[in-house]
Amino acid sequence: MATQPEVGVSDFVLLDNLTTDTFIENLHLRFQNNKIYTYIGEVLVSVNPYKNLDIYSMQHMAQYRGREMFEVTPHVYAVADACQRVLRQQGKDTCVLISGESGSGKTEASKFIMKYIAANTTQVHRDYIDRVKNVLIQSNSILETFGNAKTNRNGNSSRFGKYMDIHFDYKGDPVGGHISNYLLEKSRVVSLQPGERNFHAFYQLLSTNNATTKKFGLASSAVYKILGSERATAQDSKLFSVTNSAFDALSFLQSVVEDIWSIVAGVILLGELTFTETPDGQLSIGGPLTQCTNALGVSEQALRSSMAGRVLSAGGDLIFETNSFEQFCINYCNEKLQQLFIELVLKQEQEEYAREGIQWTPIKYFNNRVICELVDAPHQGLIAIMDEACLNPTKISDTQLLEAMDRRLNGHKHYTSRQLAPTDKKLKHGVDFRITHYAGENKDSLWQDLKRLLHSSDNRSLADMWPEGGTNIQKTSKRPPSAATLFRNSMAALVTGLQSKEPFYVRCVKPNPHQAPNTWDEQLVRHQVAYLGLVENVRVRRAGFASRQRYDRFLKRYKMLSQYTWPNFRGSNDKDAVMVLLRDLHVSDVQFGHTKLFIRSAKTLHGLEAARAELIPSIVILLQKLWRGTLARMRYKKMKAAVTIYNAWKRYRVRRYIAELQAELQRNRGVIRQWPPAPRRLPAPLLQAAYRRWRAYLTLKPIPRAQWPQLKMKICAASALRARRTHWGQDRQWIGDYLADSSYNSKAAAYQSQLASLQKSQQVGRALFSCRVHKFNRYNKLAERCLLITESAIFKLDANTFKPLKKPTAITEVGAIRIMSSDVQLVVISIPSAKNDLVVGLVAPNSNQTGGTADLVGELLGVLVNRFNMLTGQELSVEVESGATTRCILGGKTRALQLPAAPPSPAAAAAAPFTHAHNVITYHPASARA
Ligand SMILES: Nc1ncnc2c1ncn2[C@@H]1O[C@H](COP(=O)(O)OP(=O)(O)OP(=O)(O)O)[C@@H](O)[C@H]1O
């Protein structure tokens, strides 16, 4: 019982107990499942579905590009691709042999191949290749118009053999081609079987009233003998346009196209001529003779004489049934191709096995050489006998020819006739003979005088078709070679040509004679399977090997299946690697040739393919991973190199800049007067700050470190005063917290304990400055107080208890400080938010250096300016009044604050440091100089 075959490698090879029955049963099963293609070995079998199952799309074709035949579902595209690949990769000429009965799908298969080749081109020289592709495809339309006809077996049957050569450039792109025709069925022109049509060209021309029909007096509505019982249809009219556009696409000159249609018209008109013999033995021609000679471009006289000549020298009666000679030739052609197929397949296999040192027992198969020789053997073959008969100067009849054949071929296994087999009632006595499958008779020749007639035509194209017509008149008496001989010769040339090429095969099978879809005629299929030798082919393949592959290619394809070969084999050669690989996979049905591995069963190949397909995704991911990693590493290295270069450059620029600075320092004895422009991105402010620190360090170095904070205050005061006051205590040591100094404050201990508790309760930070003051308030009252400035606030303290009076004022709230340019100890601390300035006269300690009192204004100023800047980041405004009057705000009102015209006596100043009259406050300072 046959099992349903799977699509893939050599389907039928998988079957056990293969017989013709199981084979056909499987073929049928596939046909029912709309699977029209299958492989036997590398031979593609196509069963004509008579319905559109094939998807002609770029996407569909793309699936076959560069893939092995067994990788994808069977299709003509796979054959085309394999064929083109061998050509591209191995530089070998290839051919595809398409064979099968009439209507089995040969032409369609060849069109698929051409479409595939046309689509599978590279992008270079696009225009030129597009033109070649166009010519390839469009040439079919013309060939079909003039060479195809509707027969009872096929609505669009090719009535000629076709051999198409396509030439490829080194890249595998089609660059040209040549089409040879074999044996056009000429007898169809004058003789039609019931239900059949003549060549499409006649119907196409007569489907419309066009320039040609008008020119030669033809009418689409008229009836012509050549058309038989059929008439032109709307489809013919459509195809007429297609043919003309194909002429156009193939760059036929307009004059040539006109010539061609004139010839077609001429043939139609020839069919309308009537011939009678006049009593004086002359030929009388009736019918549209003038239109006919016009269309053929010959003179009436020439036509008349060549027609008459033919009758006179024909030399034989019409002994033959029409349309059978061509069939005989077609059958002969098929036999020849079948022989080639068998020989090539077996020869190749056997040669390969011998070359590779593989054990091989030759398989028995039916060799149809005997049939071919029956037809074409010199002297003894049918063609030779027919030629001999035709050469006979006396008239020779069917019976005589048959007798000659019977005599010469008696005893041949594949030849028979009624005379030789009297019991075979299917054969007519004295008429029929049979060659195994097919029988045929032979007579065809075109006489030299007719060739001369056509060669003399005004129609250039017609004249060019018959160059032999121009040869010496002396040769005209010589009989031309018979059609059979011509055909035999061209077959021999074809076979020689094909033998030099790497062959691919497509075998077309016709499922029924009615051109109907879904219909299976068992007998018809059986007949084809038998004569195409399909079952034998399977047997040969079964006895042989399902696949053979070069070791390097096999390894490349399957190396990932074993840890010993993936990613690389450590041994020395590919054969060892394949052996290790297969041992690891426990595959044993193989033989190892010298350069190739032979795999016996397709099942093994399936298994390898399946295992490979399973692994591929992870390998793809691995490769992607590695590649991405490589890319990232490459990118990283580049980035790192760029950063290194950039850093080196940056360092170099900095070094160069610093060298410039050093030069500047040397020039100016350690001072940079003019900063040279810094390179971009160099933090010049930082450098400048470093420079300043360094300069400051040099300046400060001679001064004891303990004095540095004091120095900082002095610098603050100096920069705030900007030389607006001469004496500000700069020459003496600043104490800061004077109240803590017992020489200044007899209650220093009480102050300190009070300060400690204040620091604890209010977290005001260190005491930076403190002293006694005379304070003048908004009620024009004078009070003795102590002033304390901590890190964050300004306190007014009770002069005896040192307790804070009111809330302290935050340093950040100070708006400005006003002082006089003379050396008085008057200080106005402006506090805008309180609307009351702090107006105080500082009570300076005795100065050790001068013996007078020290100046506290500068010190207070230094502390406040410095702290204000540290807390707010801004400069505190310092106003220095150069005259004798300044101002202050008390109780929200601005009041004048002045110094007395004459210096007060120290006693008076001590008694009332501030007085007021008429809203003017006068400060009577004791002179202070430090
Ligand atoms: N693959 C296919 N899919 C669908 N229909 C097909 C296919 N192949 C052939 N046919 C049908 O069968 C018809 C006959 O096919 P085609 O003309 O190719 O046969 P052929 O073998 O070239 O015949 P002949 O020898 O008479 O020229 C086509 O016109 C088409 O209708």
Total beta-strand segments: 27
Which radius of gyration do the C-alpha atoms yield?
60 Å
> What can be said about the biggest beta sheet?
8 strands, mixed
The side-by-side strand order for the widest beta sheet comes to 19-18-17-16-22-21-20-23
Helicity level:
40-55%
What is the CATH top level name of the domain at 707-923? Mainly Beta
In round numbers, the mean pLDDT is 83
Structural class: alpha+beta
- For this structure, the CATH topology of the domain at 707-923 is PH-domain like
Parts with pLDDT < 50 across at least 5 consecutive residues: 1-10, 310-318, 437-445
Beginning-to-end CA distance, first to last residue = 131 Å
Bound molecules: adenosine-5'-triphosphate
- CATH second-level architecture of the domain at 707-923: Roll
CATH homologous group name of the domain at 707-923: Pleckstrin-homology domain (PH domain)/Phosphotyrosine-binding domain (PTB)
Content of β-strand: 5-15%
What general form does the structure show? elongated
Q: What's the total helix number?
A: 28
Binding site for ATP: 100-107
Region (Actin-binding): 491-513
GO molecular function, one term: actin filament binding
InterPro entries: IQ_motif_EF-hand-BS (IPR000048), Kinesin_motor_dom_sf (IPR036961), Myosin_head_motor_dom-like (IPR001609), Myosin_TH1 (IPR010926), P-loop_NTPase (IPR027417)
